[in-house]
């Protein structure tokens, strides 16, 4: 996973060709982009609208584009990588100034990103990253080096989020369910192959001392055991559906649910209640994102903790885009700053939450 936050000069080959025409969500009136001497055009390929978090991210991008007076061409891929590739290809044909995108999965981007390089259009990865390109390239002209495939990545350290979820459980599980020698964990994974899923999966296991290659396993100290792990694709509906199956097969043995996002945790809470168990007590629930729905559940006592993943990335995306186009140095990875929330601080934090 991504380990370095380093500086790199924006691609010297960035194209400044203007592309007029349709836009959605950004400033469509005249004038110039903040920090530029003209109005710039950004193509943005978003994954879809699978979660509360994603909606907040999209709103942040659109609001920031309007604020910076950037002509934003926004495309919703409805969870399909194919749609993202098509959108990016269209942006290239339209000769946009810069392309930002949230890769639904980590792999399969080489060809399209090389097309962007050939067209001289810099790219920014937002929220999720792509495999194997987390550093400044040794040779900035080597197209085959994945480190050259995008100019900047703006998003969270997903692996660290998995570490934080496990650390919270190590510190708190015995306070909620005392007297257990082993805590059985079930896991709802995010979209398979996405950096959000692979990072959280690995980070969670690393902190427990469970080999990252195994879906199931026992912590090095023998106190935590992952007994079931399946994807719920980051959606509330699938989180509920998979948890229903978990409850049917192992309902009486489950002590902990780790969900790779809050939406799946919220769906699972319903399944747990329908199975006659008390979420937050019989089953300790930890999610990721810290969306309002999770705060409501924590205040109601049905969820125990949420590890924040910041979706309000729009302002950083626009600022980074302008810096790249002005050929100013930008960080290769702008890491989001985040906190952890649980029932001890959720009520106090809730009123100031923006998403
Ligand atoms: O990539 C970020 C993840 O994607 C969020 O945790 C999840 O809610 C979203 O759908």
What this model shows, in words?
With 355 residues, the protein is of the alpha/beta class. 35% of the residues lie in helices and 19% in strands. The protein has ten helices and 15 strands. It has helices spanning 52-68, 81-93, 110-119, 158-176, 195-208, 236-250, 262-274, 292-300, 314-325, 346-349; strands at residues 7-9, 41-46, 71-76, 98-101, 123-126, 152-155, 183-189, 217-218, 224-231, 256-259, 284-289, 305-308, 329-331, 333-335, 340-342. A seven-stranded mixed beta sheet has the order 8-9-7-10-11-12-15, sandwiched between helices. It has a six-stranded parallel beta sheet with strand order 3-2-4-5-6-14, sandwiched between helices. Helix 8 (292-300) links the parallel strand 11 (284-289) and strand 12. Helix 2 packs parallel to helix 3, helix 4 (158-176) crosses helix 5 and helix 6 (236-250) crosses helix 7 (262-274). The two termini are 27 Å apart. Residues 1-27 have low confidence and may be disordered. Bound molecules: alpha-L-arabinofuranose.
Number of strand segments: 15
Structural class: alpha/beta
- Percent of residues in helices comes to 25-40%
Number of helices: 10
Cofactors, ions, other ligands: alpha-L-arabinofuranose
- State the strand order across the main sheet: 8-9-7-10-11-12-15
Biggest beta-sheet profile: 7 strands, mixed
Shape descriptor reads elongated
Query: Radius of gyration, Cα only, in angstroms?
Result: 21 Å
Distance between the termini: 27 Å
Strand content: 15-25%
What quaternary form is this?
single chain
H/E element sequence: EEHEHEHEEHEHEEHEHEHEHEEEH
Sequence stretches where pLDDT stays below 50 over 5 or more residues: 1-27
